[in-house]
Amino acid sequence: MTTPNGDRSDRSPWNWLLIVPIILPLLPFLYNSDEPRLFGFPLFYWLQLAFIAVGVTCTTIVYQMTKRRR
């Protein structure tokens, strides 16, 4: 089933927020050190967990701002 272009809901500017969790882990200067450590874990490991939280947050914001009101 196809929808006319006028009914598409994927043209929101909020969708640009989804580029943040894609680009953020690709910046090597963010994890170019061993310090600071958090609970004994080097920066790289806990930063990866922080990237997951950023991705979930961005996805939730985009979903809430673009879902169709009924």
Automatic annotation (TrEMBL):
It comes from the Bacteria. Keywords: Membrane, Transmembrane, Transmembrane helix. The chain crosses the membrane at residues 12-31, 43-63. Pfam families: DUF3311. InterPro entries: DUF3311. This is DUF3311 domain-containing protein.
